[in-house]
Amino acid sequence: SVIAITDVLAGKYPVNEEITVHGWIRTRRDSKAGISFLAIHDGSCFDTIQAIAPNELNNYQTEILKLTAGASVKVTGILVESPGDGQSFEIQATAVEVLGFVEDPDTYPMAAKRHSIEFLREHAHLRPRTNIGGAVTRVRNCLAQAVHRFMHSKGYYWISTPLITGSDCEGAGEMFRVSTLDMENLPRTEKGDIDYSEDFFGKETFLTVSGQLNVETYCSALSKVYTFGPTFRAENSNTSRHLAEFWMVEPEIAFADLGDAATLAEEMLKYVFSALLEERADDMAFFQQRVDKTVIDRLNAVINSDFVRMDYTDAIEILENCGKTFENPVSWGVDLNSEHERYLAEEHVGGPVVLQNYPKDIKSFYMRLNDDGKTVAAMDILAPGIGEIVGGSQREERLDVLDARMKEMDLDPADYSWYRDLRRYGTVPHSGFGLGFERLVAYATGMQNVRDVIPFPRTPKNAAY
Ligand code: 4AD
Ligand code: MG
């Protein structure tokens, strides 16, 4: 099987023996003495391996001297310890087979130079070949694997919840419709409405905004569960924190209150950041150097801190009295904007903060009503630099209170009959949260925009690829 460059650089292969690696040229440098130095990457790690190609090779003039960034090669040679610093091993090439040249190197978009992040975004199919694109990809993978490992170690079962749904979890009217109806010739009911009984599923369906309602059903049977998959929101917000398609980790815990959910979220963040610093030191050193000078310190601070927990009511008081003028003024009852969230996390606390017990009128129907009758047991975790990274709550497990709340919000109980059943048959207190995975990756790398931490970002007016 093909040897990964990361294993070669880690010393897993014997020196002074023949080895073959495959990859793409990052740079080629030629010495006057008739030797070319090829830096080769295969994406398995941040570093390249250097292959030294002497002019005795039969294709030296015809091919090796024509290698440019992005060309693909198969290199065979003797693995030796590298005399230069910064590199552990290199290959004294005995054969360099060119698998694919780069057509017209002058117009190759990923030519070896620094590109703007916006330029890379417009070339999403070539972006993973760059240093930054590769590093983001490996970090994203590392965090996803760490999430699964963490949940598994805590005894949670991973549940696959559907992407196509008939229910609106968040009730924010941000759903993409899924339909096979002929748009030119929509079937109509007698009243003139679109007749969804003619549609594929025989009813109106959407892409899910959250797996929560579905995963709650499994929580009410297996106690500790989570879902981790893509979710979709047709919110027309062109910000650095919003995607129309993003991934979410959603644990759901039976016999647990809001504090238990906040604790699990805190432990999860610490676990995945520790795993990241341990497993991807190479990529994190790059982010620290090139993207955000404080990123590693920041992650270490999170790992070593106790998250501050603060009531919404207290946060409003802090914001009202902080002497700062916000674009959107605050008072009890308003939803917080990212400027408020960032003030609290960055300036007031200087670290992640768990904000809890929000006014019920700005939150979803399923959140548990507190005894004050005004607030619900909801929490958001706000992180410096990014704002809300986690949103969660204790769920309303009392059928009568849930029904009253749904009525208040004009939701039809018939649409949620299966959800109500969980309260009718052996109801239990339970809690959960959603961790926005792209916000997590952005936070962990210092990348400023969630569009740059998902392979193919989906945003308003943009579904390229
Ligand atoms: O706060 P949200 O809307 O919560 C829910 O969907 C709950 N049903 C989760 C649950 O309790 N199981 O979303 C959760 C998180 C946010 O905190 C944010 O990190 C992320 O999902 N998020 C987005 N990330 C990228 N683009 C968007 N448009 C996002 N909307 C939410
Ligand atoms: Mg939220």
From TrEMBL:
Top-level division of the source organism's lineage: Bacteria
Reaction catalysis annotation: tRNA(Asn) + L-asparagine + ATP = L-asparaginyl-tRNA(Asn) + AMP + diphosphate + H(+)
One of the record's GO cellular component terms: cytoplasm
Signal peptide interval: none
CDD domains, alphabetized: AsxRS_core, EcAsnRS_like_N
EC numbers for this chain: 6.1.1.22
Coiled coil spans: none
Cellular localisation: Cytoplasm
Gene3D superfamilies reported in the protein's UniProt record: Bira Bifunctional Protein, Domain 2, Nucleic acid-binding proteins
Record GO biological process: asparaginyl-tRNA aminoacylation
InterPro entries: Aa-tRNA-synt_II, aa-tRNA-synth_II, aa-tRNA-synth_II/BPL/LPL, Asn-tRNA-ligase, Asp/Asn-tRNA-synth_IIb, NA-bd_OB-fold, NA-bd_OB_tRNA
Aminoacyl-transfer RNA synthetases class-II family profile domain location: 138-455
UniProt entry keywords in alphabetical sequence: Aminoacyl-tRNA synthetase, ATP-binding, Cytoplasm, Ligase, Nucleotide-binding, Protein biosynthesis
Protein biosynthesis in keyword set: yes
Main location: cytoplasm
GO molecular function, one term: ATP binding
Protein family per UniProt: Belongs to the class-II aminoacyl-tRNA synthetase family.
Subunit structure: Homodimer.
Identification of the protein by name: Asparagine--tRNA ligase
Organism of derivation: Thalassotalea marina
Lineage: Bacteria, Pseudomonadati, Pseudomonadota, Gammaproteobacteria, Alteromonadales
The gene coding this protein: asnS
